[in-house]
Specification:
two-stranded parallel sheet; 325 residues; single chain
Length: 325
């Protein structure tokens, strides 16, 4: 009986060692089959284009197909939830955004995933600064002049709120500068831009890809970008901080995530390969055409960024009196 018990324990130990070896071998062999990249927005646009370009590069460098699948419904929540519940083996990844990992938590009452604890951050991929534009009749050719004019005429200037980021970018400006502006809601920033040109509103924070052509043709006046550093897409425009709004930063962003508990060696490999892809000249130029700056980094940097952004967006939404729905 004792020999049988010892044999049984030995078999269990060997089986456990086998599982450990299989797991380690699977990590060192990664990827050994196609990888699915779930994109939290629809086809077309900066996030989808970046995901597809990235998938092309990773397929070449890692020797397995990286397949893009768009799941844009419910503000990207379905995509994020799908990845959060997937096996933590590196074969289901999320290309998420400030919406999935900051905006939803600020604007939606019940989000079916935790943006921090349900994911392993891989790397930030891109930053999409907003461009502050004003109607040409506004007597301000700099942010300092706009702030001074707004303080002298409280409540007179109206800003467009066609997206959550446009609303919060303006609310942050209002809070730091101590000015009073009138919020005008829109279904999208394209409609808000039409009214900015027509003078129905005077201020709009919009995506660079949307605003830059209008600034180039002098249809509206560009004053600054919302990022902490100047954008390589519009390098002549100062940042809000440079233009006299200390501590200002609010940007759109794109990042890659894996399910929580994905093994560290897999996350490390993905981080290294994605960062290599983001250094590709053609990819960088493609992103610039979409108003996005490549923004590689480490998993720890992305984790800290998500924590900071979630808090920032939530605080700004509460400050603006926006009730989650």
């Amino acid at each position: 009986m004792r020999h049988r018990a010892l044999l049984g324990h030995g078999l269990i130990a060997l089986a456990a060692l086998g599982l450990v070896w299989e797991a380690a071998h699977g990590q060192s062999n990664y990827p050994s089959r196609p990888v699915k990249m779930i994109v939290a927005v629809g086809a077309g646009g900066a996030t989808d284009t970046l995901a597809r370009k990235l998938a092309e590069q990773l397929s070449k460098s890692m020797g397995q197909p990286f397949i893009v699948e768009n799941q844009p419904a419910a503000s990207g929540m379905i995509a994020a939830q799908t990845v959060a519940r997937a096996a933590p083996d590196g074969y289901t990844l999320l290309i998420g955004t400030n919406t999935t990992h900051a905006g939803n938590q600020a604007f939606i009452k019940s989000v079916p995933y935790d943006p921090i604890n349900d994911f392993e951050p891989i790397t930030r991929l891109g930053l999409a600064a907003l461009l502050l534009g004003v109607n040409n009749d506004v007597p301000a050719k700099s942010v300092q002049e706009l702030t001074a004019y707004a303080k002298a005429h409280p409540g007179k200037l109206a800003f467009g709120a066609g997206t959550g980021s446009a609303r919060l970018a303006t609310e942050l400006y209002k809070a730091i500068a101590g000015i009073d502006l009138l919020s005008v809601p829109y279904k999208g920033n394209q409609q808000a831009l039409v009214d900015l040109r027509g003078g129905q509103i005077q201020i709009l924070f919009g995506d660079i890809a949307l605003m830059q052509p209008q600034v180039k043709t002098n249809a509206v006046r560009g004053l600054a970008v919302s990022s902490a550093k100047r954008s390589a897409v519009v390098p002549d425009l100062p940042t809000m901080q440079e233009a006299g709004v200390p501590g200002y930063e609010l940007v759109g962003w794109i990042a890659a995530f894996a399910p929580a508990k994905t093994p560290a060696p897999i996350v490390k490999r993905l981080n290294e390969e994605m960062n290599k892809a983001l250094a590709d000249k053609d990819l960088v130029e493609t992103l610039h055409g979409l108003g996005v700056d490549a923004a590689p980094g480490t998993p720890d940097e992305l984790r800290a960024w998500v924590k900071s952004e979630t808090k920032k967006w939530g605080d700004l939404a509460r400050q603006a009196g926006i009730q989650p729905e």
